[in-house]
Automatic annotation (TrEMBL):
This is Alkyl hydroperoxide reductase. The lineage of its organism: Bacteria, Pseudomonadati, Bacteroidota, Flavobacteriia, Flavobacteriales. Keywords: Signal. It comes from the Bacteria. Coiled coil: none annotated. Residues 27-171 form the Thioredoxin domain. InterPro entries: Thioredoxin-like_fold, Thioredoxin-like_sf, Thioredoxin_domain, Thioredoxin_ResA/DsbE_sf. PANTHER family: PROTEIN DIPZ, THIOL:DISULFIDE INTERCHANGE PROTEIN DSBE. Residues 1-18 form the signal peptide.
Amino acid sequence: MKQIMTVMMLSMFTLGCAQETPQVSKTEFSKEALNQKLEDENGKSTSVQEILDQHKGKVLVIDFWAGWCRDCLKALPKAEELEKNNPNIDFVFFSLERSKEKFDSSLERFSMKEKENYWFAEGWKNDFNNYIDLNWIPRYMVIDQKSGIAKYYAISPEDPEIQATIDKLLK
């Protein structure tokens, strides 16, 4: 009986905490989402729109991660491999750290300082993350050359749809 109760409790816990696939795959961002502010590692505030504008004309992969996220850290080597295998693609990292100090520490600790990094100073719940149905990390999105959403939802850099989307956009 004790084993059955343990299994039931674990099942309820994991069901309540599992990453849920969004019901709708969005293909563009809302105005509110584009206006969302992030900060770079120097503390400079910028909007999602400004970040996308910097990469217009290129395929962009957005990697959502945090140094406290075990799944994110396990995925980092594969994300680096995806980046290395796609030298003509831009990569941007959106951190869900809980403070600027943790953001800075994670960049240093996980050798991310050479990459383009931003963090949500407002926290996880914000107009951008709410719009894209961000309920778990890691999460990956592929943005096309016109700043449209080409791949809305992937939870692993090894998801074959990421590479397939990139290849399709580059044709």
